[in-house]
Write a structure and sequence with these properties.
Blueprint: H1 5-30, H2 37-69, H3 85-90, H4 93-108, H5 117-124, E1 132-136, H6 144-147, E2 155-159, H7 167-179, E3 184-190, H8 194-200, H9 206-212, H10 216-220, H11 234-255, H12 257-264, E4 269-275, E5 282-285
Parallel strand pairs: 1-2, 1-3, 3-4
Antiparallel strand pairs: 4-5
Helix pairs in contact: 1-2, 11-12
């Protein structure tokens, strides 16, 4: 039976060294007998080419074998189905929160679920039964679905700079929960939010000015902060961000009788979250 790939490589190397020695001796002899030099050179060249080819084939065999046996190349079943109506119905607000926490841990550990997106697109065409509604900031550094290891059909995502609510977003949340059956509303702020900094600095620029009026109540509510209350102070920006999330939660309950009633009955939960740009971790709070 043939030896192991490593042993074959050693044998090829020994063979090359043998012919190199033979070639050296031939050169020495050629000083005495010039006619023997060319045949020796021809023999050496042919042999080296053949042995290199053999070595390459051996290395390729090792690579093919390693690739076949490597755990990272073994086929992993892809998630191909979206959530069904019965699966959504079986969920509770607390179970969805737990799903989000586990998904966030996978995101932080770079261990996201493998998905067949083409299959999921086709499967979702017949209907949608998401687990939750997430209200996130516009910030491009927060890939909401990935942050919770969610895929197509798993969550409704609303985005606006500063993650506040207006009647359009409230109506979307009502659709997501009352009509489509989502069990959770998550309002998610984040570290180093530009909209929060702009609200702290009272920026005046086009439509941004009007937008910031929705966030500035959180700035007012944060005046009990004992240190430097400017946008350059990371701790103050975080304090305002979290107060802004809390204000948004209260605004949802105050401005949407439908969602408040669902929350009071335990059909949904409305909670907050704070995303770390540095670690990818979401801290949950109510």
């Amino acid at each position: 039976m043939p030896g192991a790939p490593g042993q074959e490589a050693v044998a090829v190397k020994n063979q090359q060294l043998f012919f190199l020695k033979l070639f050296t001796n031939s050169i020495t002899q050629s000083k005495k007998m010039k006619k023997s030099f060319l045949p020796a050179l021809a023999i050496f060249t042919i042999t080296v080419i053949a042995s290199c080819q053999s070595a390459t084939e051996g290395e390729q065999h090792v690579a093919d074998t390693s690739a076949t046996n490597s755990p990272t190349t073994m086929s992993t079943p892809l998630k191909e189905k979206v959530l069904t109506a019965s699966e959504q119905k079986a969920l509770t607000p607390d179970s969805v929160i737990q799903i989000f926490k586990e998904g966030n841990r996978r995101f932080m550990n770079n261990n996201l679920t493998a998905r067949d997106h083409s299959a999921l697109v086709r499967d979702a065409a017949a209907g949608q039964y998401p687990k939750a509604v997430v209200l996130s900031c516009l910030d491009s550094r927060i890939p909401v679905e990935d942050v919770f290891d969610r895929g197509i059909g798993d969550i409704f995502v609303a985005r606006v700079a500063g993650n506040f609510v207006n009647e359009d977003i409230l109506g979307s949340m009502e659709f997501g929960c009352k009509v489509s059956g989502a069990k959770l509303i998550l309002v998610m702020g984040h570290e180093s939010c530009g909209a929060i900094k702009a609200a702290i600095d009272n920026v005046k620029l086009g439509n941004i000015t009007a937008m910031l009026t929705k966030i500035q109540p959180a700035v007012v509510a944060s005046q009990d902060f004992k240190q430097d209350r400017t946008s350059k102070n990371k701790e103050f920006v975080e304090y305002v961000s979290k107060n802004n999330v809390k204000n948004t939660i209260e605004a949802i309950k105050a401005k949407s009788p439908i969602l408040k009633e669902m929350a009071d009955k335990g059909e949904i939960k409305i909670i907050g979250g704070y995303y770390s740009l540095e670690t990818g971790e979401v801290t949950f709070f109510e």
